[in-house]
Specification:
The structure holds two protein chains of two kinds.
Chain A: H1 5-19, E1 26-27, E2 32-35, H2 39-46, E3 53-64, E4 69-79, E5 82-88, E6 94-100, E7 108-112, H3 121-133, E8 141-147, E9 150-156, E10 161-166, E11 172-177, E12 182-195, E13 198-207, E14 211-222
Helix pairs in contact in A: 1-3
Chain B: H1 9-27, E1 34-44, E2 52-61, E3 65-72, E4 76-81, E5 84-91, E6 94-98, H2 103-117, E7 127-132, E8 135-140, H3 143-146, E9 149-156, E10 163-170, E11 175-185
Antiparallel strand pairs in B: 1-2, 1-11, 2-3, 3-4, 4-5, 5-6, 7-8, 8-9, 9-10, 10-11
Helix pairs in contact in B: 1-2
The chains are: A alpha+beta, B alpha+beta.
């Protein structure tokens, strides 16, 4: 039985999630004007990330630069530094399930189908999810300022930094930079609603130099201490 | 057999589920010319606090035309018309045809349609079939396939020719349950619905 084109495409996807996120999409280190942090900026920048335990279900539209793409359903549970994730086909088949307890930890894979068993796929996937849902860890420090006239927070962490640009419509743009200051991931948000200290975007778009994930929120749930997920 | 080749197996399972409804109708003295219904799909996973729900509709026209369509949360359409199988997915707001449908595997299923419509609801090349009361259980014959789909359970409806639900048990522990509603039997269906998304 021959390998179908869809599976070849998934192999490419796995390779990209594995390796390409390290490549820059834009060099935009300039343009950050340092200012004194206001309470409002500190508050809003803190609301970019969920606090406590949450579970999100997203409809994910994946596209390559050449216009090809596919669809997946993603389940993400965040709990402090820990992330659990499952990827499903729209028909419901589980392609991948695993967790990463903290940044840099080796991902634990519960279930995977080829080609999602490709070496490095899980690490790339969790790196994307950390950009979206987990604030920079460790000895991160923050500066406030503006980028292109919009208020912004720059969080320094080793290696690199994260810029959070606060938009007038209540949403934000996030630039994840490597140690050279090059943006490796750009996150844009739309239709944001504030819920329990978290500004929940209906649409999250994560772009690297090689692929784009457009994630439409299906469901966001704050988990209680009794939930075992 | 490698697990790599089995990613589209759920589509095959869905085809079987849809066609089985018609097959069961044939074996219960109802001549099936067409079946159409809406469905709600519930996905259960250990990681999930509550199931993920999708919905859509399916249309079947004897002997071998099928439309399996998801409307939420994505739009996706699987068409089978005179032996040709095509799948369309929404991408960038438009329905785009996916290449590389698993034609070999689909043809294994298609080969059995004739038997099922004749009421011979028995083992085939892909599944071992057993029936107990209103439950029909399909178990993949190949070990590699069982690692992905361990069993498919069809729950027959009280009305001849229709299914109440299909439960797909994954080898990894996940469960997909399809519950059918608003089912209609032998209502004429526009042929274009099997040809165009």
């Amino acid at each position: 039985m021959k390998l179908c084109a869809f599976q070849v495409f998934l192999c490419i996807l796995c390779g990209l999630l594995n390796g390409c996120a390290r490549q820059a999409v834009v060099d935009n280190t300039a343009g950050f004007s340092v200012m004194v942090c206001s309470d409002a900026e500190i508050y809003r920048c803190g609301q970019v990330y969920p606090h406590g335990r949450w579970q999100f279900v997203h409809a994910i539209d994946f596209s390559l630069q050449n216009g090809r793409g596919s669809q997946l359903i993603g389940v993400t549970t965040v709990d402090g530094e820990a992330i659990k994730c499952a990827l499903l086909t729209i028909e419901g088949l589980t392609l991948f399930a695993g967790q990463q307890r903290e940044a840099g930890a080796v991902p634990e894979v519960f279930h995977r189908l080829a080609p999602f068993d490709k070496k490095g796929f899980a690490r790339g996937l969790f790196a994307d999810l950390r950009t979206l849902f987990i604030p920079p860890a460790g000895d991160a420090t923050m500066q406030c300022g503006s980028i292109d006239g919009d208020p912004a927070c720059r969080i320094y962490r080793y290696p690199g930094s994260v810029d959070i640009i606060l938009r007038d419509n209540g949403c934000w743009t996030l630039l994840d930079r490597n140690a050279d200051g090059h943006v490796t991931r750009r996150v844009t948000t739309r239709n944001c609603v504030n819920r329990q200290m978290y500004t929940v975007p209906e649409i999250l778009t994560l772009a690297t130099g090689h692929y784009t994930l457009r994630m439409r929120l299906v469901r966001a749930e704050r988990l209680s201490g009794r939930d075992e997920h | 057999m490698s697990r790599r080749i089995h990613l589209p197996i759920l589509l095959i399972a869905i085809l079987i589920a849809a066609i089985s409804g018609a097959a069961i109708a044939s074996s219960s003295r109802v001549t099936v010319r067409s079946v159409q219904a809406e469905f709600r799909q519930e996905k259960y996973l250990k990681i999930l606090r509550s199931p993920i729900c999708s919905s859509g509709r399916f249309l079947f026209q004897a002997p071998d035309s099928l439309r399996w369509e998801y409307t939420k949360p994505f739009r996706s359409v699987l068409l089978m018309y005179r032996g040709r199988i095509r799948k369309f997915v929404e991408h960038g707001g438009r329905l785009i045809e996916e290449n590389g449908m698993p034609v070999d595997a689909m043809q294994m299923v298609l080969a059995d349609i004739g038997n099922w419509l004749a009421g011979r609801f028995t083992d085939n090349d892909v599944f071992t079939v057993s029936r107990l009361g209103n439950m029909v259980r399909l178990v993949p014959k190949q070990e590699g396939m069982r690692a992905v789909i361990s069993a498919i359970i069809l729950e027959l409806g009280s009305r001849p020719g229709l299914l109440d639900s299909v439960t797909i048990q994954e080898g990894g522990g996940g469960i997909t349950r399809l519950v059918f509603s608003h089912a209609r039997l032998n209502i004429p269906i526009d042929e274009r619905l099997f040809r165009t998304p």
